[in-house]
Amino acid sequence: MPLGELLRCPTFKEKAKKHPDHVHYGLSGYPVLMAADILIHKGELVSVGEDQLVHLEMARAIVRRFSAHYGPLFPEPKPVENQSARVPSLTGEGKMSKSDGKGTTISLKDPKEVIEQKVKRAYSDPLRTHKVKPGHPTRTGCNVFHLHEYFSEPEEQQSIQTGCQTAEIGCVACKQMLATSIERTVAPIRQTYEQLTDADIHDLLLMGKEKAKVSAQQTIQEVREAIGFYMY
Ligand code: SF4
User: Among 39, 86, 106, 87, which Cα is nearest to 67's?
Assistant: First the structure.
Protein backbone atom coordinates (compact mmCIF):
# COMPACT_ATOMS: atom_id res chain seq x y z
CA MET A 1 0.00 0.00 0.00
CA PRO A 2 1.67 3.27 -1.05
CA LEU A 3 2.40 5.51 1.94
CA GLY A 4 1.11 8.53 -0.01
CA GLU A 5 -2.37 6.99 -0.21
CA LEU A 6 -2.39 6.29 3.51
CA LEU A 7 -1.32 9.84 4.34
CA ARG A 8 -4.07 11.25 2.12
CA CYS A 9 -6.77 9.23 3.91
CA PRO A 10 -9.31 11.74 5.36
CA THR A 11 -9.54 9.99 8.75
CA PHE A 12 -5.74 10.04 9.09
CA LYS A 13 -5.62 13.75 8.22
CA GLU A 14 -8.42 14.54 10.68
CA LYS A 15 -6.77 12.65 13.58
CA ALA A 16 -3.31 14.03 12.77
CA LYS A 17 -4.75 17.56 12.84
CA LYS A 18 -6.52 16.93 16.14
CA HIS A 19 -3.52 15.29 17.86
CA PRO A 20 -0.41 16.65 16.07
CA ASP A 21 1.91 15.35 18.82
CA HIS A 22 0.69 11.77 18.47
CA VAL A 23 1.06 11.03 14.77
CA HIS A 24 2.49 7.51 14.72
CA TYR A 25 2.63 4.50 12.45
CA GLY A 26 -0.54 2.95 13.94
CA LEU A 27 -2.59 5.92 12.78
CA SER A 28 -1.51 5.73 9.14
CA GLY A 29 -1.28 1.93 8.99
CA TYR A 30 -4.72 1.36 10.53
CA PRO A 31 -6.59 0.93 7.18
CA VAL A 32 -4.08 -1.77 6.14
CA LEU A 33 -4.56 -3.58 9.43
CA MET A 34 -8.34 -3.36 8.97
CA ALA A 35 -8.01 -4.71 5.41
CA ALA A 36 -5.94 -7.63 6.74
CA ASP A 37 -8.60 -8.39 9.38
CA ILE A 38 -11.28 -8.54 6.69
CA LEU A 39 -9.34 -10.27 3.93
CA ILE A 40 -7.77 -13.00 6.03
CA HIS A 41 -11.30 -14.43 6.34
CA LYS A 42 -12.29 -13.35 2.81
CA GLY A 43 -15.05 -11.17 4.25
CA GLU A 44 -17.63 -10.10 1.68
CA LEU A 45 -20.00 -8.02 3.81
CA VAL A 46 -18.65 -5.80 6.55
CA SER A 47 -20.65 -3.92 9.16
CA VAL A 48 -18.95 -0.53 9.42
CA GLY A 49 -19.79 2.94 10.64
CA GLU A 50 -20.03 5.79 8.14
CA ASP A 51 -16.50 7.03 8.98
CA GLN A 52 -15.03 3.60 8.21
CA LEU A 53 -16.36 3.51 4.64
CA VAL A 54 -13.20 5.16 3.39
CA HIS A 55 -11.13 2.40 5.03
CA LEU A 56 -13.31 -0.24 3.43
CA GLU A 57 -12.70 1.44 0.08
CA MET A 58 -8.95 1.09 0.73
CA ALA A 59 -9.45 -2.61 1.48
CA ARG A 60 -11.19 -2.91 -1.90
CA ALA A 61 -8.26 -1.12 -3.56
CA ILE A 62 -5.84 -3.56 -1.91
CA VAL A 63 -7.91 -6.49 -3.27
CA ARG A 64 -7.84 -5.04 -6.80
CA ARG A 65 -4.10 -4.54 -6.60
CA PHE A 66 -3.53 -8.08 -5.31
CA SER A 67 -5.83 -9.53 -8.00
CA ALA A 68 -3.99 -7.65 -10.76
CA HIS A 69 -0.67 -9.15 -9.63
CA TYR A 70 -1.57 -12.62 -8.42
CA GLY A 71 -5.10 -13.48 -9.55
CA PRO A 72 -8.58 -13.25 -8.03
CA LEU A 73 -8.12 -14.73 -4.56
CA PHE A 74 -10.15 -12.25 -2.52
CA PRO A 75 -13.69 -10.90 -2.97
CA GLU A 76 -14.04 -7.09 -2.84
CA PRO A 77 -15.71 -6.47 0.56
CA LYS A 78 -18.88 -4.39 0.60
CA PRO A 79 -20.47 -2.47 3.49
CA VAL A 80 -23.65 -3.81 5.10
CA GLU A 81 -26.54 -1.41 4.57
CA ASN A 82 -26.90 0.12 8.01
CA GLN A 83 -29.22 2.96 9.01
CA SER A 84 -27.39 3.43 12.31
CA ALA A 85 -23.99 3.90 10.70
CA ARG A 86 -23.48 7.19 12.49
CA VAL A 87 -25.12 7.82 15.86
CA PRO A 88 -24.59 11.49 16.80
CA SER A 89 -22.59 12.37 19.90
CA LEU A 90 -24.38 13.66 23.02
CA THR A 91 -22.40 16.87 22.73
CA GLY A 92 -23.71 17.58 19.22
CA GLU A 93 -20.22 17.37 17.74
CA GLY A 94 -19.56 14.44 15.42
CA LYS A 95 -20.50 10.86 16.19
CA MET A 96 -20.58 8.95 19.47
CA SER A 97 -16.93 8.00 19.87
CA LYS A 98 -15.23 6.41 22.88
CA SER A 99 -11.99 8.23 22.08
CA ASP A 100 -13.76 11.60 22.54
CA GLY A 101 -14.57 10.91 26.20
CA LYS A 102 -17.35 9.42 28.26
CA GLY A 103 -19.59 12.48 28.06
CA THR A 104 -20.16 11.96 24.35
CA THR A 105 -21.31 8.35 24.36
CA ILE A 106 -23.81 5.94 25.86
CA SER A 107 -22.18 2.62 26.66
CA LEU A 108 -24.13 -0.60 26.10
CA LYS A 109 -23.25 -1.42 29.74
CA ASP A 110 -24.45 1.89 31.20
CA PRO A 111 -27.04 1.47 33.99
CA LYS A 112 -30.36 3.31 33.70
CA GLU A 113 -29.32 6.10 36.11
CA VAL A 114 -26.11 6.79 34.16
CA ILE A 115 -28.05 6.97 30.89
CA GLU A 116 -30.43 9.48 32.50
CA GLN A 117 -27.56 11.62 33.80
CA LYS A 118 -25.79 11.65 30.46
CA VAL A 119 -28.92 12.45 28.46
CA LYS A 120 -29.81 15.23 30.91
CA ARG A 121 -26.57 16.99 29.90
CA ALA A 122 -27.00 16.32 26.15
CA TYR A 123 -26.76 19.26 23.77
CA SER A 124 -30.16 20.29 22.42
CA ASP A 125 -31.61 23.13 20.33
CA PRO A 126 -29.42 26.21 21.03
CA LEU A 127 -32.19 28.52 19.78
CA ARG A 128 -34.73 27.29 22.32
CA THR A 129 -33.65 29.48 25.19
CA HIS A 130 -36.95 29.33 27.13
CA LYS A 131 -39.56 26.66 27.62
CA VAL A 132 -42.28 28.97 26.24
CA LYS A 133 -40.38 29.33 22.94
CA PRO A 134 -41.09 26.72 20.23
CA GLY A 135 -38.08 24.57 19.31
CA HIS A 136 -36.71 23.16 16.07
CA PRO A 137 -37.22 19.39 16.26
CA THR A 138 -35.29 18.27 13.17
CA ARG A 139 -32.03 16.39 12.63
CA THR A 140 -30.08 19.58 12.24
CA GLY A 141 -32.14 21.79 14.58
CA CYS A 142 -31.83 19.68 17.73
CA ASN A 143 -29.34 16.94 18.57
CA VAL A 144 -31.72 15.40 21.10
CA PHE A 145 -34.40 15.08 18.45
CA HIS A 146 -31.86 13.51 16.10
CA LEU A 147 -31.19 10.87 18.79
CA HIS A 148 -34.93 10.27 19.19
CA GLU A 149 -34.93 9.23 15.52
CA TYR A 150 -32.62 6.33 16.40
CA PHE A 151 -34.19 5.21 19.65
CA SER A 152 -37.86 6.27 19.86
CA GLU A 153 -40.92 4.84 18.13
CA PRO A 154 -42.31 6.86 15.17
CA GLU A 155 -45.44 7.84 17.18
CA GLU A 156 -43.28 9.18 20.02
CA GLN A 157 -41.18 11.16 17.54
CA GLN A 158 -44.36 12.61 16.04
CA SER A 159 -45.75 13.67 19.41
CA ILE A 160 -42.40 15.21 20.46
CA GLN A 161 -42.21 17.11 17.18
CA THR A 162 -45.70 18.57 17.64
CA GLY A 163 -45.19 19.25 21.37
CA CYS A 164 -41.86 20.99 20.75
CA GLN A 165 -43.12 23.13 17.86
CA THR A 166 -46.06 24.30 19.97
CA ALA A 167 -43.91 24.66 23.13
CA GLU A 168 -46.19 22.20 24.95
CA ILE A 169 -43.27 20.03 26.04
CA GLY A 170 -39.99 21.27 27.45
CA CYS A 171 -36.49 19.94 26.89
CA VAL A 172 -36.28 18.35 30.37
CA ALA A 173 -39.31 16.14 29.67
CA CYS A 174 -38.12 15.46 26.13
CA LYS A 175 -34.73 14.30 27.39
CA GLN A 176 -36.38 12.07 29.98
CA MET A 177 -38.34 10.43 27.15
CA LEU A 178 -35.11 9.97 25.20
CA ALA A 179 -33.42 8.36 28.22
CA THR A 180 -36.37 5.95 28.52
CA SER A 181 -36.12 5.05 24.83
CA ILE A 182 -32.36 4.47 25.05
CA GLU A 183 -32.81 2.36 28.19
CA ARG A 184 -35.40 0.26 26.31
CA THR A 185 -32.77 -0.45 23.62
CA VAL A 186 -29.77 -0.92 25.87
CA ALA A 187 -31.33 -2.90 28.80
CA PRO A 188 -31.58 -6.32 27.06
CA ILE A 189 -27.94 -6.05 25.92
CA ARG A 190 -26.75 -4.98 29.38
CA GLN A 191 -28.73 -7.79 31.05
CA THR A 192 -27.21 -10.40 28.74
CA TYR A 193 -23.75 -8.98 29.48
CA GLU A 194 -24.39 -9.13 33.24
CA GLN A 195 -25.38 -12.80 33.04
CA LEU A 196 -22.09 -13.78 31.39
CA THR A 197 -19.40 -15.12 33.70
CA ASP A 198 -15.66 -14.78 33.05
CA ALA A 199 -15.64 -18.47 32.15
CA ASP A 200 -18.42 -17.92 29.54
CA ILE A 201 -16.43 -15.09 27.97
CA HIS A 202 -13.26 -17.17 27.99
CA ASP A 203 -15.08 -20.08 26.26
CA LEU A 204 -16.58 -17.76 23.64
CA LEU A 205 -13.19 -16.24 22.87
CA LEU A 206 -11.60 -19.66 22.63
CA MET A 207 -14.33 -20.88 20.28
CA GLY A 208 -13.90 -17.79 18.08
CA LYS A 209 -10.14 -18.17 18.12
CA GLU A 210 -10.28 -21.80 16.94
CA LYS A 211 -12.70 -20.93 14.14
CA ALA A 212 -10.63 -17.91 13.06
CA LYS A 213 -7.38 -19.87 13.13
CA VAL A 214 -8.63 -22.47 10.64
CA SER A 215 -9.97 -19.81 8.28
CA ALA A 216 -6.83 -17.62 8.53
CA GLN A 217 -4.42 -20.52 8.00
CA GLN A 218 -6.34 -21.58 4.90
CA THR A 219 -6.13 -18.05 3.42
CA ILE A 220 -2.43 -17.67 4.23
CA GLN A 221 -1.76 -20.98 2.48
CA GLU A 222 -3.63 -19.79 -0.61
CA VAL A 223 -1.81 -16.44 -0.59
CA ARG A 224 1.57 -18.18 -0.40
CA GLU A 225 0.67 -20.39 -3.34
CA ALA A 226 -0.63 -17.42 -5.35
CA ILE A 227 2.53 -15.38 -4.88
CA GLY A 228 4.89 -18.36 -5.05
CA PHE A 229 6.16 -18.03 -1.52
CA TYR A 230 6.72 -21.42 0.06
CA MET A 231 7.92 -22.28 3.52
CA TYR A 232 9.93 -25.48 3.75
S1 SF4 B 1 -38.17 19.69 23.32
FE2 SF4 B 1 -36.82 18.09 22.59
S3 SF4 B 1 -36.77 18.32 20.40
FE4 SF4 B 1 -37.56 20.24 21.25
S5 SF4 B 1 -35.77 21.56 21.48
FE6 SF4 B 1 -36.10 20.52 23.43
S7 SF4 B 1 -34.82 18.72 23.33
FE8 SF4 B 1 -35.05 19.48 21.23
Answer: 39
What domains, with CATH codes, occur in the chain?
A: 3-85 (3.40.50.620), 98-195 (1.10.240.10)
pLDDT value for 134: 95
pLDDT digits (tens, 9 = 90+) for 35-79: 999 999 999 999 888 878 899 999 999 999 999 999 999 999 999
C-alpha 183 – ligand 1 centre gap (Å): 19
Taking the CA of residue 135 as reference, the ligand 1 atom at the shortest distance is 5
Query: How far is the centre of ligand 1, averaged over its atoms, from the C-alpha of 100 (Å)?
Result: 24
Question: For the chain, how big is the Rg over CA atoms in Å?
Answer: 23
What is the model's pTM?
0.75
Q: Average pLDDT of 100-104? A: 75
Question: Ligand 1 mean position to 162 CA, how many Å?
Answer: 10
79 sits in which H/E element: strand 78-79
**What is the whole-number distance in angstroms between the Cα of residue 175 and the centre of ligand 1?**
8
> Could you give the CA distance from residue 121 to residue 175 in angstroms, rounded to a whole number?
9
> Which residues form ligand 1's pocket by a CB distance below 6 Å?
124-125, 128, 135, 137, 142, 144-145, 160, 164, 169, 171, 174
